[in-house]
Structure formats: structure tokens, C-alpha cells
Amino acid sequence: MAAIRVRDLRKTFAAKRKAAGLRGSLAALWRPEHDTVQAVDGIGFEMEPGELLGFIGPNGAGKSTTIKILTGILYPTAGDVDVLGFVPWQARRDLAFHIGTVFGQRPQLWYHLPAVDTFQLFGKIYELDDAVVRRRIDALADAFDIRHLLLTPVRKLSLGQRMRCEVAASLLHQPRLLLLDEPSIGLDVVAKQRIRDTIRHLNAAEGVGVLLTSHDAGDIESLCKRVIIVNHGRIVYDDKVSTLKRQFLTSKRVEVRYAESMPAGFTVEGTEILKVGKGGYGVKLAFDTRRTPVEAVVARLAAAGTLVDMTIEDPTLEEVIRAIYETARPHAGAGDGEASAAVATAGAVGEPPGAAP
Amino acid sequence: MTPAAPVPPAPGTGGALAWRSPAARSAAKYRAIFATQLAQTAAYPADVAARSLSIVVFMWVFIHLWRATYEAAGQSQVAGLTLAQTLWYLVLAETIVLSKPRPAAAIAEAVKDGSIAYQLNKPYSFLLYHFSVGLGDSLVRMVGNLVAGGALVWWVAGPPPDPRGWPLVLVAMTLAWAIDFGMVALIGLLGFVTEEVAAFEWIYSKVLFLFGGLLIPLDFFPDGLRTVAERLPFAYTLYGPARLFVTPDVDRFAHLVTGQLLWLALVGGLAAAAYRAGVRRLTINGG
């Protein structure tokens, strides 16, 4: 039985509209106007128990709204949802015993108290026996490496430390499903990696299913086997991460800085030079990993001069989504159904307003 | 990294505490929320002490105003109250007002910043969660206000009224607190739709000050206005407990508590209905 089953989910909001300035404010007071926002527009998917599923999309794509409907916080406008056998908005409190949630940087830990106080409070809220809570805190303190942080007031913790405590708190009652909404937002590379490592470990050790939203493709690459990409409230891709990487995460952008100036007409085999900075010290280039492996580019760049600094970037989600639509278009002759079949083996549908020309 | 040790299955209908009754399990979680908020408020004793100074300022003004009023009247009693009784009445009424939680602001803020997502996805009642948090927050401030205001009035007007009435006052104050919570929670639930509720809260507080007898005990009101005011929920929130404090009496207590329970049932029912209606319309900022 699927842990999550979603069918034709829709959510519409009414958003206030107001012209700029005082005149606009007064006019809105007299005659308020609203825009209808289709936050979720016919989403459907299934998630297996214990699966690590990425649910990604740009800002405003509808991923957070979907998560909040899955937890029972928001009521959908239409559609069917089953989470662990519950209809979330009808059985929010019963479902809460079985799921854990983390909503980005919004804190659930009590700010002025040590994290351990929130853990113990959650033990009561989730109706756990005191001895079980103690054992569970002990286990999570090791898993998340937070034992030394537990007695420090939350306000004194760094963002990375706090997020480890936040995720640990959401696992106190050993949920069967963890819904993480942008858990790595604002974190540095090291903190992100620690969170990812621990989530992957707990998924293996406890079998907890993880639905992870992020607009950082790196989260999904390192954690999930399957990914759903949403845009404008619709699913545009639903398939293995390996397929996504093979098909759409192939371009890399590199920025290097040399100790010495590079000569005019500087080239690196297998790459496209995008820009050479003033003085020739900084170079921006792009390459396709299907044609040129990363290690080959790095070796060629290192051989060209003394490297002072180097960053390698994946394409942004917006670029990936654009690439998905562009790939779909040549096959799309008979309509969206064919397009989606061409893009992915499962579930890529629709076309966003203003997609590739 | 050490593997997380397996633990007994997570609860669904009581889990590890299934041997306890549902009511006992519920009581335990709200007691824990109350105690956690108590600890959070008490984490800053200097803040609590500084806030308590405001009642000293208010009472200092009241002492001078009412002393002048009694001197002008040339009587030891006005409207059935001595100066000392009036001042002790005002200490209690001010304590209730200054220790009140602000669930309306808290709910509206949570809707605006999106943190309401965490308050709605835990296995507890949203309203009872805020009730428990508010009670924990109020209790610390109530003690601070009562001690600071009471010390000043004791010094100026003599000892407090008969301590044998204090347990009755405690019951009445608890019910008064609950009625006020229900009223302010109703305003806060408007935030599910309007997001901003500061104006509604401001109007409520001014009506409460006036018809609750915060500035002038209802005994000093003209008869017609007094009759109306005494039947409103505001009087059961401020005037009732404060008046019971200065003239403790079992009949007065029984009359007060009966009225309080009726108002509590009405306001509590309205708040529960407003929550059920509001949560369906809720939109959360930031997705």
C-alpha cells in the first residue's frame, strides 16, 4: 500500500490585488479586488513506504502548499489524498502521530529554552512514555551529533545546529513518514551535508519515508532516488534522479581564478568560455558532462595555470525545467500526453504558461 | 554516526501511554505545554520584574486620584466602598488586565509568518494549545503584578481583605481568565481570514476597561448603566473577581461563578465554531 496517494489535487487561493501607492490603498478599501491563484493544479502521484522522494520546483511552484495539504493543515479545493491511510484534513490529529514535519526556517523548538525541553514536551504531546522519550533523545542525540547542544538555549545555536535539532525533534515520535519542506534553506555547505547524511542514515536505519521539498537540486541529487518536479502547480517531471541527472543535469558552470593572467584567446578543450574577467585572472566557462567529464575539465584548468579559487555549479532548477520543456517540445506534436512520455517515463504532464517558444 | 536505537512503535491511539485514559493523556500534554511556557517566561526574571513596575505606576496614579475623590466626597465610604477597598479592588483588576495573555496577536502573527503550520500539525487542540501557553505566560506575570501592586497598596492603605476569601477569588479569577481568553481567541481567529487583528483587539480592550470596571468599579456607575454592565461578560472578567476580593461572600461567589460558567460556555462554543470555520479558509503565507 502506498504511503502517499494523491489524485488530481487542486488548491486555489484568493489573493488581494491593490494598485500602488496611497490612492491604490484607498481604492482597495472602497472596492477590494482579488486575484485567483491556482497554487496546485491537478497534481497526482504515489509514494511508497520508506521511499526517499524529492519534490522540487522553483519558488511559487506549489510544493509547500502540497506538503501542507498532505499534513492536513490546508484544505484542498479539489482532489483525493490518502496519507498512511488517513485523509489528512479530516484526520489531522490522528495523522500527526505518524508523520514528522520540518518547515524550512520556521522554528518549532521553543526559542528561549534548551532544545531538550522541547524534546520532552513533544514526548508528552505525542503521548510517549518518559523512558521511551529518554531513550529516543539519546539515540537522536548520537544520530544528529547534537548531544553537546541539547542543554543550550535554542536562541544561542547557529542555524545549522538549530536545523539539526529541528529535524531530530520531528523524529522523536518515530514517524513513518517525514515531510521536509526546505530543510536546508540558508545552510552552508557543511551543515547541508550533515543534514543530508543523517536523513539518509535514518531512512536506512528506521525505514522512515521522506518527502523532501527543496529548490536546491543538490539536496535531491544526494538524497533521493526519485524526483518529482513541479512548476506552476503541475508536475512536469516524475522519474528517477539518475535519469534526471543523465538528461538534464548535464551542464556545469565553472568559475576559476588564476594567480597569473591568462592569455587572450584562452580556451579549454571540451568547454565553452563564457567570460574572461578584466586582466585575464578570472574565467567563467560551461561544459556538458556527457561529452567532457568533470575530472578532465578540472585537470585541464589546473594545467593551464596556478589556480587560486574554483567553484562548480549545477544548472538552476529554472534551467532544468526549461530544458525539460525544450526536450518535450519536438515530440509534442499530438499534445501534452506525448510530450510527457518523451520527457519522462512517469507522469510529466502539461506545459506551463509561457514555456519555451 | 551511531544508528538510532529502535524504540517501541509510535503512538496512534495512545501508543506507549495507551493504558491511560484519553482524558488523562490529553491533560498530561496540556499540562506539559503550560509548564514549558511557564519555564520560558520565567527564563527572564528581570523582564518579569521590570514589567511588574508598570502596575506600581498605575496604582500610584490611582491612589492619588481616589484619595482626592474620597476627600472631596468627605465620606469614608462612597458607593459602598472604602478607599482601601477601592484600591485593593483596583490592584486585582489591574493584575488581571496586565497579566492577560495576547492570544489574538500570537495567532495573527503565526498566520502572517507561517509558523501556524507547526501549531496545526501536532496532535493537540489548537485552541487548548494557546490556552495552555497563555496560562503559563500569565501565571508568572500575575504573581509579579500582584506582589508589586499589592505591596504598594498595603503600604498606603493597609492590609488586604480577609484571606479566607482568597481561594474563592482564585477560582473566580481562573474563570475570568478563561472567559477573556475565549473572547480574545475569537478575535485572533479572525486572523485566519484578515491576518491583521490589532484594531479588533484594541477595541475589545477599551470596552473591557470601561464595562469591566477597570478604571472605575461598577458600583460608581449610574444605576441603569450598572445594571447593563453587570450582565456583560466584561464584568465577569474584571469587576466580579475584584469585587469578590474586597467583600468575600459565598452568595456573591455562587452568583459570580454561575454567570462566569454560562459566559464561558457561550464564548468557548463560539471560539470552537469559529476555529472550525476559520481553519477551512486558512491560507498560509510563504506557501
Q: Could you give me the name of the CATH homologous superfamily of the largest domain in chain A?
A: P-loop containing nucleotide triphosphate hydrolases
Counted beta strands of chain A: 13
Please identify the oligomeric state: heterodimer
The low-confidence parts of chain B are 1-14
Keyword list:
heterodimer; A: 357 residues; alpha/beta; Rossmann fold; Alpha-Beta Plaits; 2 domains; globular; disordered C terminus; B: 287 residues; 2 strands
Describe the structure.
The complex is a heterodimer of chains A (357) and B (287). With 357 residues, chain A is of the alpha/beta class. Chain A folds into two domains: 4-9 and 40-246, P-loop containing nucleotide triphosphate hydrolases (Rossmann fold, 3-Layer(aba) Sandwich); 250-313, 2-Layer Sandwich (Alpha-Beta Plaits), CATH 3.30.70. Chain A has twelve helices and 13 strands. In chain A, strand 8 (226-231) and strand 9 form a beta hairpin. The longest helix of chain A has 18 residues, at 189-206. Chain A is globular and about 70 Å long. Chain B is mainly alpha-helical. Chain B has one domain (25-281). In chain B, 74% of the residues lie in helices and 1% in strands. Chain B has eleven helices and two strands; from the N terminus they run ααββααααααααα. A two-stranded antiparallel sheet of chain B has the order 1-2. In chain B, a hairpin with a 2-residue loop joins strand 1 (77-78) and strand 2. Classes of the chains: A alpha/beta (357), B mainly alpha (287). At the A-B interface, helix 2, helix 3, strand 5, helix 4 and helix 5 of A face helix 1 and helix 5 of B.
Task: Tell me the layout of helices and strands.
The complex is a heterodimer of chains A (357) and B (287).
Chain A: E1 4-17, H1 21-30, E2 33-47, E3 52-56, H2 63-70, E4 78-83, H3 92-96, E5 99-103, H4 115-125, H5 130-143, H6 159-170, E6 177-181, H7 189-206, E7 209-214, H8 217-223, E8 226-231, E9 234-240, H9 241-247, E10 251-258, E11 272-276, E12 282-288, H10 294-304, E13 307-313, H11 317-328, H12 336-343
Chain B: H1 22-42, H2 45-73, E1 77-78, E2 81-82, H3 83-99, H4 103-113, H5 116-120, H6 126-157, H7 166-194, H8 198-212, H9 223-230, H10 233-246, H11 250-281
Antiparallel strand pairs in B: 1-2
Helix pairs in contact in B: 1-6, 2-3, 2-6, 3-6, 3-10, 4-7, 6-7, 7-10, 7-11, 8-10, 10-11
